[in-house]
Amino acid sequence: MTKIVIAGSRGRMGEALLRVAPQIPEIKVVGEIGRGDNLEKVISQCDVVIDFSFHRATFGFAELCAKNGKALVIGTSGHTDEERNKISSLQSEIPIVWSSNYSTGVNTLFWLSRTVAETLGASFDIEILEMHHRHKKDAPSGTAKTFFEILSAARKELLKESEIVAKYGRNGISGERDQAEIGIHSMRGGDVVCDHTVIFAAPGERVELMHSATNRETFARGALRAATWVAKQKPGLYDMLHVLGLSSMDSQAEDERSASGALHPLVTR
């Protein structure tokens, strides 16, 4: 039995976690933390803290986990570089799963997108398109950033010396597309939960990889799966590919991220 505390329990993802957790026999929720609640009062009762609160709160929760020897699953996004560095510095003390997306489908697509990029080669242009609900505060999504990091690593190997550039939308006379360019485009509207498409386009043909989530429970199930997994791990920084057993299939990409200091769920995501 893995005992968890949910931070951000009154948010959309927190509510999804509370709905799904009773369906999993191996999980027991022993605490819920919302705005104004004190994690210190309940942290001794749990094995893992799952954080889906707000990026500014994550480091405080991570510090408490390190102080009490508790594992951590991070689902918040929008962290600054300083926040990411401070949080990741605790990986030597506790096991942390940090992913931009906890869907098993999306994480499989992370691995697949790199394979497709390497197979198709540098002649295919790459564009990343994401859409979320109107209330999402950060753009591009953490998942879109992860796709860029993965595809950028693959493209660097293909183009050798070229500096890979992210193009966040285009406006006016932007000039011809460069081979080392990867487009990232964000759309917001309605109640869209999470849509991501990676487009590989060459003269005469186009390949599209797409994932669409229709409810948040798919992410909740992935985060709870990560919680049961990380509770048994040694201190370190992990991602959903580790949880799913796909990390050995993407070791080269992980080396790229380690060298650059990147954090995300291929990684982390």
Characteristic terms for this protein:
269 residues; alpha/beta; Rossmann fold; Dihydrodipicolinate Reductase, domain 2; 2 domains; six-stranded parallel sheet; five-stranded mixed sheet; 11 strands
What does this structure look like?
With 269 residues, the protein is of the alpha/beta class. The chain has two domains: 2-102 and 216-260, NAD(P)-binding Rossmann-like Domain (Rossmann fold), CATH 3.40.50; 104-213, Dihydrodipicolinate Reductase, domain 2 (2-Layer Sandwich). 35% of the residues lie in helices and 25% in strands. The strands form two sheets. A six-stranded parallel beta sheet has the order 2-1-3-4-5-11, with helices on both faces. A five-stranded mixed beta sheet has the order 7-8-6-9-10, covered by helices on one side. α1 (12-20) crosses α6, α2 packs parallel to α3 and α4 (104-120) packs parallel to α5 (142-159). The protein is elongated and about 60 Å long. Residues 251-269 have low confidence and may be disordered.
Averaged pLDDT: 90
The total tally of domains equals: 2
Give, in order, the helices and strands.
EHEEHEHEHEHEEEEHEHH
Helix content: 25-40%
Shape: elongated
CATH superfamily of the largest domain: NAD(P)-binding Rossmann-like Domain
In percent terms, what proportion of residues is strand?
15-25%
The spatial strand order of the largest sheet comes to: 2-1-3-4-5-11
CATH class descriptor name of the largest domain: Alpha Beta
Oligomer: single chain
| Distance between the amino and carboxyl termini | 25 Å
The radius of gyration is 19 Å
Overall structural class, as computed from helix and strand content, comes to alpha/beta
Number of helices: 8
Largest sheet: 6 strands, parallel
Give me the count of strands: 11
- CATH topology-level name of the largest domain: Rossmann fold
Ranges where pLDDT stays below 50 over 5 or more residues in a row are 251-269
CATH architecture classification name of the largest domain: 3-Layer(aba) Sandwich
